[in-house]
Amino acid sequence: MKNVYFMRISSSTETEKISNGAKSLLNKLVEDERISLGRYIPLKVHFGEKGNLTFIKSENYKGIINFLEDNGIKSSFIETNVLYRGQRTTKKNHIKLALKHGFTQLPIVIADGDIGEDYDEVEISMKNLKTCKVAKEISKQKQMIVLSHFKGHIGAGFGGAIKQLGMGCAARGGKLEQHSNTVPILNFLQCKKCKKCVQTCPSDAIKIGLISRIDKQQCIGCAACISVCPHGTMKINWTGSVSRKFYERMAEYAYAAQKGKQIIFISFAMNITKNCDCEGHAMKPFVRDLGIFASTDPVAIDMACLDKLSQREDRTVFRRGRYILDYSEKIGLGTKQYNLIEIK
C-alpha cells in the first residue's frame, strides 16, 4: 500500500493557494518517504496545445520551483513532441508555444529532439512490447517530478500520471507505437513528391514514384515523416487506438519511462474537462475542481484521483479506460492499494 497525499482546492483561480499547496505536498512527501534529492530534477509538464485554455498554468508550479531552488536543486521544464501535426510537432514551434503559454521560469528541454528523432530503446520484454522508444533526455534522468493534469481523454478515457509517463515521455515513434499500428499511412493521391519525407526517413522506408508508398518491412515507426510532410500526406494509422491493447501498450511505455528512476508524481485535479489538453480549443470543465495529489506511485495516485472524484460526485467518473490500472498493477508499475492522507 502506497501513501497518496491530498489537499483540497475549491477553485483553479486560487493560484497562490495551489502553488503553496503543491509545495507543501512535495515537502511532506520528501520528508515522509525519506527521498534523497539529486542536484538536477526536471519537471515533466504539458504546455497545452494552441487554443487550449484549461491546461495547468506555469504559475501553479511556482511553489515546486521555489522548493527546488531552496534546496539548491537545478531544474527545467521537460516535454516531448507530439505525434499529430500542430504547434507542438517540432522543437522550435513547441518551445515558442510554451513561452507564449507562460513557461518562462525555467529552461525548456524538448526531450526527443527537433522532430522526435532522439530516443533510447528501453528494454522491458513484456506482453506487447520488447522495447520502448523513450525520449533520450528523459531516458537518461535518474529523478523527475511528473506534473499531471487529471482530466478526461478521448482515447484513454482519462489522463493522469500513467498517461503522462507512458505517452508523455515517449518519443514520437513511441507515441505512434502506442496509438496504432507502427507504420504511418501514405496517401499517394495527396503526395506532391517533394521528397522531404525521404530526406528525413532514417531507414529509407519511403518510396516515391508513380504510386508512392512506405515499405512496412523497413519502417521503424519513428514517425518523423509525419512531422516534416508539408502537405499532410502522411497519416496516423489510428486502428486499434481505443482498445485494451492501447491501454496495455501505454502502461508498458509508462513502465519503460520510469525504469531505473526515482519519480515524484503530483497531479492537479482541477479544470477537469472531458478531453485532453492536446485539443487546441477552449473546453469547459464538467465537474468542480477537486484538489492536488502527490505520491511516489503512478497507479496509486491515478486510483486516488478517480476514487476521490467519484465519491464526491456520487457516481463513477471516467469509467472507460480504468483497465489500464489493472494492467499497470499486473506488470509491476504500481499498486491500486493506497492510504490517502489529507493535508490541510
Structural notes for this entry:
This protein is α/β, with parallel strands linked by helices and 344 residues long. The chain folds into two domains: 2-178 and 241-342, Rossmann fold, CATH 3.40.50; 181-237, Alpha-Beta Plaits (2-Layer Sandwich), CATH 3.30.70. Helix content is 30%, strand content 19%. The chain has eleven helices and 16 strands. The longest helix has 18 residues, at 15-32. The model has no long low-confidence stretch (mean pLDDT 93).
Question: How would you sum up this structure in a few lines?
Answer:
This protein is α/β, with parallel strands linked by helices and 344 residues long.
Tally of individual helices: 11
Q: What percent of residues are in strands? A: 15-25%
Query: Average pLDDT, to the nearest integer?
Result: 93
**How many separate domains?**
2
User: What is the alpha-carbon Rg in Å?
Assistant: 20 Å
CATH class of the largest domain: Alpha Beta
Distance between the termini: 22 Å
Structural class by SSE content: alpha/beta
String of helices and strands? EHEHEHEEEHEEEHHEHEEHEHEEHHE
Structure keywords:
2 domains, globular, 19% strand, 344 residues, two-stranded antiparallel ribbon
SSE blueprint:
Elements: E1 2-8, H1 15-32, E2 43-44, H2 62-70, E3 77-79, H3 91-100, E4 108-110, E5 119-123, E6 131-135, H4 136-139, E7 143-149, E8 151-153, E9 157-159, H5 161-166, H6 172-179, E10 185-186, H7 196-200, E11 206-207, E12 213-214, H8 224-228, E13 234-235, H9 244-258, E14 262-269, E15 291-295, H10 298-313, H11 323-330, E16 338-342
Helix pairs in contact: 1-2, 6-9, 9-11
